[in-house]
Amino acid sequence: MTEKVETASLRLHVNGETHVVSVSAERTLLSVLRDDLDLTGTKYGCGEAQCGACIVLLDDDPVPACALPAASAVGRAVLTFEGLAKGGGDGEGDRLGAVRAPLDGEGLHPVQRAFIAETAMQCGYCTPGMIMQAVALLRRQARPSDAEIVHAMNGNLCRCGVYPQILRAVRRAAELLAVQGP
Ligand code: FES
Ligand code: FES
Fold first, then answer.
1. What separation in Å is there between the alpha carbon of 103 and the centre of ligand 1?
2. Ligand nearest the Cα atom of residue 52
3. Which structural domain, as residue segments, surrounds residue 143?
4. Domain count of the chain?
5. What is the CATH number of the domain that holds 115?
6. pLDDT range class, residue 92, cuts 50, 70, 90
7. Best of 42, 43, 50 for a ligand 1 pocket test (most atoms within 8 Å of beta carbon)
């Protein structure tokens, strides 16, 4: 006997655009973002809300999209890594996770620019999640101390160990945001 898969039609507001997707009940937001909306900047790491690779903002709150049913995002604003850059959302999945703007920094969010300026990446796999977590922190707190940055980023793991550069990048991002605004 074949099991019947329950599907639902969900209206998701992602990076300022509305998408209607028909998905089965158990699908995660991460899976829908990557597989249905082609937003591959959000990465799959542990799949268990333990590494931070899949962090997106839900109404400004950083959440692990791998552990969130897509249905939970209905009625809320989802911001992914692509949505940070002007005109983002093309999902081509380059090393920095699908930003349409050139890598000279044109059109990138100040936090993205700060990570590039400090070379705060090696393989780059953790980078989108790190950046989304940093954006959430800097929206809550414009000038965090080093200890506050470390505390806020504690759930984001980097297997390449570029933590010192990431700390410097978040500091630099705070300075850029103070001058230019979000
Ligand atoms: S993939 Fe979601 S926290 Fe690791
Ligand atoms: S740069 Fe490779 S996991 Fe962080």
1. 26
2. 1
3. 7-180
4. 1
5. 3.10.20.30
6. very low
7. 50
Residue 1 lies in a domain: no
Taking CA atoms only, the protein residue closest to ligand 2 atom 4 is: 158
Segment 69-98 shows an average pLDDT of: 71
Sign of CA dihedral 164, 57, 43, 51: positive
The ligand minimizing its distance to the Cα of 55 is 1
- Decide if 2 is inside a domain: no
In a domain, 66, yes or no: yes
Computed on alpha carbons and rounded to an integer, the radius of gyration of the chain in Å comes to 16
Q: What is the pTM of this model?
A: 0.88
Q: Which residues line ligand 1 (CB under 6 A)?
A: 44-47, 49-54, 64, 66
Distance in angstroms (rounded) separating the CA atoms of residues 30 and 54: 7
Contacts of 123 (CB under 8 A, 6+ apart): 159, 160
Confidence of residue 33 (pLDDT cuts 50, 70, 90): very high
